[in-house]
Amino acid sequence: MSRSGYYAHFAARPAAEERPRREGELVAEIRQIHAASRRAYRAPRITAALRRKGRRINRKRVERLMRERDIRGITRRKRRGLTRPGRKAAPSPDLVGRDFTAAEPGTRLVSDITYVPTLAGWWYLATVIDLATREVVG
Question: What is the pTM of this model?
Answer without folding.
Answer: 0.51
